[in-house]
């Protein structure tokens, strides 16, 4: 789990990504857009209603797309920051695996195919990577990779050759795209939904694209939109930080500042654009088969600590258990949601199922 696969390292090298100690060390050009927290939706669509929060790709939306392209041309500081963390986080990953799957050696994506094989799968907003490759190796026959830019340049360098022939790329702006009806056995959201502005539309399309026994697998940021954490959450995280030995704290960093909005926004224009709405809308369109929320504390605290925290196993485990307790008690809003969902049936679908069962029982 802790090893970085060779094809991922080669992908990083081809993209010219460099390791660094923090986002401030590698600033991106701002997107030059008035980045704000969008207003709450005023409409809850029916299960069979395809509703658009952002009704058309207007000039503002096109400017966001242009800002997105500029942002990704320069790499991704947030994910580079994650990649720059120590690669020997065995205790951290073991704890997360046990929390999510019940087995310290089984990551969340391996549990998706436990006891089942999927003929057709789709990955949303991804050009292919570790999770998709693992699913293709261990329980998925073929996969469509929906990505805004289509196939990556210079071929399919992000997928290992052993599974490359069983996946294809399809360019699609998921905010407005239509997925094929009743086509997929499995759809994967691996950190894609928190970049979506038309969540209602995308979740409607996912629900319609899944077969009746299909599965939506989710691992995503579900925290406050635009990383605007409450004052209470930031104060709790900073109190925990101050309680730790000075040797485990990064000097000059605290948990009190939210990400700046407006033109100073340092991330993609679509980053966490409506992340606060993900959980209620997921439960509106789907029935959870397995769902865990966590990382209320760790999201605010983890990057403010010295990497040597991963060698202080007792302290690390205490922090992770405290994170679970604070998140489960709703003291700290969760920022990570992981689980499996099944399409929620409409009243008409339920009536059809009851009629079919009645015919089977009374031929």
Based on the model shown, name its key terms.
363 residues, single chain, 15% strand
Can you walk through the features of this model?
By secondary structure, this protein is an alpha/beta fold. Helices cover 35% and strands 15% of the residues. It has helices at residues 6-15, 59-73, 77-83, 90-101, 108-112, 130-137, 161-164, 199-209, 231-243, 278-285, 298-301, 313-328, 347-361, and strands spanning 118-124, 140-147, 167-171, 184-190, 210-221, 286-294, 336-343. A seven-stranded mixed β-sheet has the order 3-2-1-4-5-7-6. Strand 4, helix 8 and strand 5 form a beta-alpha-beta unit. The radius of gyration is 21 Å and the shape is globular. Residues 1-31 and 153-157 have low confidence and may be disordered.
Sheet with the most strands: spatial strand order: 3-2-1-4-5-7-6
The number of distinct β-strands equals 7
Low-confidence stretches are 1-31, 153-157
Percent helix, as a range, is 25-40%
Q: Pairing-aware structural class of the strands and helices?
A: alpha/beta
- C-alpha termini separation: 52 Å
Strand % is 15-25%
For the biggest sheet, the summary is:
7 strands, mixed
Along the chain, the helix and strand elements come as HHHHHEHEHEEHEHHEHHEH
Tell me, what's the shape? globular
Spatial extent as radius of gyration: 21 Å
**Helix count, per DSSP?**
13
Overall pLDDT score:
85
Give a quick precis of the structure:
It contains 13 helices and seven strands. With 363 residues, the protein is an alpha/beta fold.
